[in-house]
TrEMBL record:
It comes from Thermocoleostomius sinensis A174. The lineage of its organism: Bacteria, Bacillati, Cyanobacteriota, Cyanophyceae, Oculatellales. It holds the Pfam family Peripla_BP_2. The keyword Transmembrane does not apply. Residues 67-334 form the Fe/B12 periplasmic-binding domain. This is Iron-siderophore ABC transporter substrate-binding protein.
């Protein structure tokens, strides 16, 4: 009799354990099911959102986002007509006119050097976050996607500025707008090439940045290098190369002859007022250096000081401002 009761007890205990195991699995699956913005999620689009595959995962993006935070590629977002509620870093002056047209003040949510302030983003209650992996890193995708649907884009160099423009446009449902932006850019390139005529194949163009304590020329895969390449302009041999993970090459003043070209564009830059002033001082000193004065391009007076803001930009607005300089110095004033 005792053995029978024990068998009955074990039978019920097994049934109970089986049900408990089933419930545990169901609860675990529910708890582990990722939301629509995690890297491993594969949700279906609904009437309220569209699926967007990007460099870090797949995200269901609201069809008509109203509160957008832009972590990178502010230029591209503004060109697409986005009115962000916040952005990362400091907007270059040529972008401020676009930000001034927004209906409410646009906040900054951190510096590019330190990354976004998550608490500030949470407080703003965005419905979409757009960015790149440059300043956020892939590790930031998970916390960002817990705040709002997030789309991040990865590129190898700043010369690939058209990639995030296209991906942001896809996320925003503005593919037609991006296509027009790029078509207009291509039309201006064609106009420039026609205006240059035979000189296009004859000119070499050097681009130089002056730091407070160094010089650097920009490579083919850099942002300014990509525009010169799009425009069909040739570069000095040392500058006509792509280098993964590097868009510029620093040189000592003893190597100034490497900069020789038919035309040279020069700029200084500093993210603080002091650094900017020191860079400008360094440029003034460079212009008295005998090796600099010996350059044919200097002696022909075909060195042009240009704005670092758009020559170091990233996006179609900056690209068109660089084209403005090419028209100004190589077509109209040559």
């Amino acid at each position: 009799m005792i053995r029978l009761l024990q068998q009955v007890n074990w039978k019920w205990r097994s049934i109970c354990l089986g049900w408990l195991a089933f419930l545990f699995v169901m609860v675990s699956n529910a708890a582990c099911t990722p939301n629509t913005t995690t890297q491993s999620s594969t949700p279906s689009p609904t009437a309220e959102c569209r699926m967007v595959q990007h460099s870090v995962g797949e995200t269901c993006v609201p069809l008509n986002p109203q509160r957008i935070v832009v972590l990178d590629n502010l230029d591209g977002a503004l060109a697409l007509g986005v009115k962000p509620i916040a952005y990362l870093g400091t907007a270059d002056p040529f972008l401020m006119t676009h930000l001034d047209n927004t209906e409410e003040p646009v906040e900054t949510i951190g510096l590019t050097e330190t990354g976004p302030n998550l608490e500030a983003i949470v407080r703003l209650k965005p419905d979409l976050i757009l960015g790149m992996t440059w300043h956020t890193g892939e590790s930031m995708y998970q916390p960002l996607s817990q705040i709002a649907p997030t789309v991040l884009v990865d590129v190898d160099s700043d010369g690939q500025w058209k990639i995030p423009l296209t991906k942001f446009a896809e996320a925003l449902g503005k593919t037609a707008e991006a296509e027009k932006i790029l078509a207009d850019y291509s039309a201006r390139l064609a106009e420039f090439k026609t205006a240059m005529g035979d000189r296009l194949d004859q000119l070499t163009v050097s681009i130089l940045r002056v730091y407070p304590d160094a010089l650097a020329f920009y490579l083919k895969n850099s942002f300014p290098g990509s525009i010169l390449d799009d425009a069909g302009l040739k570069r000095p041999p040392a500058q006509a190369i792509d280098r993964t993970g590097q868009n510029q090459q620093r040189i000592d003043k003893e190597l100034l002859p490497m900069l020789e070209a038919d035309v040279m564009f020069v700029w200084t830059y500093g993210h603080t007022k002091e650094i900017a002033q020191n860079a400008q001082t360094a440029l003034s000193q460079l212009k008295t250096n005998p090796l600099w004065l010996a350059l044919d391009v200097v002696q022909r007076n075909q060195v042009y000081d240009v704005s670092s803001y758009h020559w170091l930009g990233f996006g179609p607005i900056a690209a068109n401002l660089v084209l403005d300089d090419l028209f100004k110095y190589l077509v109209e004033g040559f």
